[in-house]
Amino acid sequence: MAKLRVGVVSPEREVWTGEADMVVAKTIDGEIGIMPNAAPVLGVLVEGGVLRLKGTDRGDFAAAVHGGFLACSGDEVSILAERAELGEEVDVQRARDALQRAEESQASGESGEEYVARAARARARLRAAGEDV
Amino acid sequence: MAAQLRIIRQRIRSVTSTAKITRAQELIATARVPRARDRLEAARPYTKAITEAVSALVTHHPGVDHALLNLRPDASRVAVLLIAGDRGFCGGYNQAVIRRGEALRRLLADEGKDPVFYLAGRKVEEWFRFRSRPYVRAWTGNSAQPAYADAAEIGRELTGLFDRPTREGGVGEVHVVYTSFVSMIAQRATAHRILPIEIEEREAPGGEGGAGPAPPPPQYDFEPSPQAVLDRLIVQYVRDRVWHMLLESSASEHAARRTAMMSATDNAHELIGRLTREANQARQAAITGELTEIVNGAGALG
């Protein structure tokens, strides 16, 4: 079976490239799964989303992506994210702390998109690392 | 005589310690240039992908429109971002950016536009403050190792500015002066208009020989809609342009510092050589003088 050639890139580095059987990401419209020979799609990903890659040469894994796009054409998929982190790179303790701080700020009445976005990012990082949030 | 010798020796000591400093700076800069270039290289896939996405969108949906793509009729006020370094010791690097900025200021003034300045780098900020020139905002402290967060911040500020009409404090154009990295020994201060956007299509480097024309961009399905995608894509594209310029300026700064420090070290060594010869001469003259005195004194006594 044909494989997808996947590239996850952020402005600072190429986070991961390789082959996968399937890519699952969350766009503004909802979850989208891409398999080889899918129709070309360019979608906006949600802030604090988790990207799942299946059937790569190291099995299935996840990455946290913040603010980005998914572009797919033919067998090539690129995920452009302003920030991206593989699940295994996530510092779980720090992500937990960040989540807690963001939630505390929200609870103490400091509302604002900033804190919501921060909490969403922290949750995505934890989920990508395989934690339950 | 002996006094002169002492002065020369003092100078030799001082030049030697200066040479140690410039040599250390040179080594640091030499180590940082490749790192800065690696970061520039690491940013390339993202730039390539985002440029392809934007050009695919604009090619297939000529109908979509975005404020950041259009020339504005009321471009009486324009923003200029100067990107330079936080530190000196880098030859003409900061000055070149300032000079280019001044040339741009004159050019814009001739066109009847009123430039407002945004600065990145402590040295340009000092220059503006020393001359009591007005500037709107300065970002400092990151020129040696810029972070993407800085680029995002600058991009947000500039696109926000461009989104407002001129009479509400917005601007009609955004220009950036940065230093493009030509090679280890050549860096060029360059002025570039980033807003309204001109989409740059770049060929992949090294792919010239027999690569033929680039394949047409794929006919994407846009989620949720072409317009929504474009809105987000354009903002990110601008940030990426700024990011690229920050990285390139940073690489140029290190390269300029290396060149400047290398010639400073060479000059210092040359100076030490000359001073040493002078010192030897002075010492010899002093000895000769003493001998003459002794001989003459002995002659007078005898």
UniProtKB/TrEMBL annotation, chain A:
Keyword Transport: yes
Keywords: ATP synthesis, Cell membrane, CF(1), Hydrogen ion transport, Ion transport, Membrane, Transport
Alphabetical list of InterPro entries matching this protein: ATP_synth_F1_dsu/esu, ATP_synth_F1_dsu/esu_N, ATPsynth_dsu/esu_N
UniProt-listed Gene3D superfamilies: F0F1 ATP synthase delta/epsilon subunit, N-terminal
Domain ATP synthase F1 complex delta/epsilon subunit N-terminal: 4-84
Source species, domain of life: Bacteria
Topology of this chain in the membrane: Peripheral membrane protein
UniProt GO MF annotations: ATP binding; proton-transporting ATP synthase activity, rotational mechanism
Cell location: Cell membrane
Gene Ontology CC entries for this record: plasma membrane; proton-transporting ATP synthase complex
Pfam families, per the entry: ATP-synt_DE_N
Keyword Transit peptide: no
Role of this protein: Produces ATP from ADP in the presence of a proton gradient across the membrane.
Membership in a protein family: Belongs to the ATPase epsilon chain family.
SUBUNIT field: F-type ATPases have 2 components, CF(1) - the catalytic core - and CF(0) - the membrane proton channel. CF(1) has five subunits: alpha(3), beta(3), gamma(1), delta(1), epsilon(1). CF(0) has three main subunits: a, b and c.
Name of the protein in its database record: ATP synthase epsilon chain
Originating species: Bailinhaonella thermotolerans
Lineage, top ranks: Bacteria, Bacillati, Actinomycetota, Actinomycetes, Streptosporangiales
TrEMBL record, chain B:
Subunit-structure text: F-type ATPases have 2 components, CF(1) - the catalytic core - and CF(0) - the membrane proton channel. CF(1) has five subunits: alpha(3), beta(3), gamma(1), delta(1), epsilon(1). CF(0) has three main subunits: a, b and c.
Cell location: Cell membrane; Membrane
Recorded topology in the membrane: Peripheral membrane protein
Protein name: ATP synthase gamma chain
Keyword Transport belongs to the record: yes
NCBIfam families the UniProt entry points to: ATPsyn_F1gamma (TIGR01146), PRK05621.1-2 (NF004145)
Alphabetically ordered keywords of this record: ATP synthesis, Cell membrane, CF(1), Hydrogen ion transport, Ion transport, Membrane, Transport
GO cellular component terms listed in the entry, alphabetical order: plasma membrane; proton-transporting ATP synthase complex
One of the GO biological process terms: proton motive force-driven plasma membrane ATP synthesis
InterPro entries: ATP_synth_F1_ATPase_gsu, ATP_synth_F1_gsu, ATP_synth_F1_gsu_CS
Pfam families: ATP-synt (PF00231)
Alphabetized GO MF terms: ATP binding; proton-transporting ATP synthase activity, rotational mechanism
Source taxon at top rank: Bacteria
Chain positions covered by the region annotation Disordered: 203-223
Annotated family: Belongs to the ATPase gamma chain family.
Described function: Produces ATP from ADP in the presence of a proton gradient across the membrane. The gamma chain is believed to be important in regulating ATPase activity and the flow of protons through the CF(0) complex.
